[in-house]
Amino acid sequence: MMTSVPPTPGVAPFGSLPDGRAVEAVVIARGPMWARVLTLGAILHELRLEGVEHSPALGSPELGLYAGPLRYFGAIVGPVANRIGGACARIAGEEHHFPANEGGRTTLHGGPEGTHAQIWRVQSLDPSAVTLTLALPDGLGGFPGNRHVSARYALTEDGAMELTIEAESDAPTLLNFAHHGFWNLDGTPTIAGHRLRIAADRYLPVDEHLIPIDGPAPVADTPFDFRAGRVLDPAHDVRLDHNFCLAGERRDITRACELTGASGLCMAIDTTEPGLQVYDSARGPEPPLPGHDGRLLGRFCGLALEPQAWPDAPNHPGFPSICFGPGERYRQLSRFSFSRV
User: Fold this and answer.
1) What HEC string does 179-192 produce?
2) Does residue 96 carry a catalytic annotation?
3) Exactly one of 24, 46, 273, 306 is catalytic; which is it?
4) What is the three-class DSSP state of 226?
5) pLDDT, mean of each 10-residue run, the chain (341 residues)
6) The model's pTM
7) DSSP characters over 312-338
8) Catalytic-labelled residue, pool 45, 109, 180, 194
9) Is 286 a catalytic residue?
10) Domains of the chain, each with CATH number or no CATH
C-alpha cells in the first residue's frame, strides 16, 4: 500500500505568495503513483510511489520558500533554461540584452521573471494528467515575441511520468525549457550512494561563471565519464553543473540517464532533448530548509537532472539551435520511469 494516501485528483487552493498571488495545487493519480503540481512555475511539488516512504522529487510544504531559495525546485524553467553568457545574444540579427540575474554577469533560467516565477493556468485536467498554460508577453525579460507555452504532466499506465512542453511565438525568439527537478531516491540527507549513468560520450567544459568555453569535449579519461555508471560521493567528486551532450540535435525520445539509489529504487529518464544538465546541488540551501516528511533540504540534498538544449546556445554557432520563429513549434517530451533493482 502507499505510505502516503493519495489525495482525490483535482484542483485546490494551496496558499498565497508573499506578493499576494494565489497558488493552486493540482493532484493527478494513476495506479501506484500520484503527483501534486503547483500553478506556480508548473512545479512538480511532490511525487509518490507505492511502497516508497518519501517523495523522490524534492520539495517543501512551505510555499513561501518557492519565492526564494527553492525558486527552481521542480519548476519548468525558461523561456531559456540554463545560462546566457554576458546576458546578451543575437536574435534574427539583432542584439538583445537580458537581466543579469546571476552575479551580474549571466542570465540564468530566463531571468527573475522566467517561467519558474509565473502563475500558470490549468487548461485541462483528468484524473491522471494535467495541462497548464502560460502566456509570456513580448519583451518580458528582454525576450521578443508573444509566446504561448504549455506543460502537460501525465501518469502512464506502465507507472511512468511523462512531461510534454510545447511553445510557439509570433516573432523570432529563443526557446529552451527544462524541468528543474531535484531527485533523491533514498530519502537520505544527501545523494551520496546513488549510482548515476549518463548516455553521453561528450560534455561541455565551462569557465568560472559556468559558461561553455569550447565545443564538446570527450568524457573519456575525465571525472565526467558516467557511461558505465558510477556511485556518487559528493565529499570527493568533481563539482557537477555541466551539460552532457546526448546528441547534436533534437531527436526521437531516447534514454538519457539512469539514477539508482542505494535503496534499489531506480529512475530512468528518456528525452527528445540533445542535452542533459546535471547539477549536484553543491550550492544548496544553508542552513537546510524544511522539505517533505520532515526531511531537510541542504547541500547535496538532491541531483538535478534537466533535459534541455545546450547552454548559451545562441552565442555558440555550432550548438543545436534554440531559435524559433512564427509558424515553428517547440516541443519537448521527457519520460521519467521507476523500477526496483
Assistant:
1) EECEECCCCCCCCC
2) no
3) 306
4) coil
5) 67 96 98 96 97 97 97 98 98 97 97 98 98 98 98 97 98 98 98 98 97 94 98 96 97 98 98 98 95 96 98 96 97 97 87
6) 0.96
7) TGGG-TTSPP-EE-TT--EEEEEEEEE
8) 180
9) no
10) 10-340 (2.70.98.10)
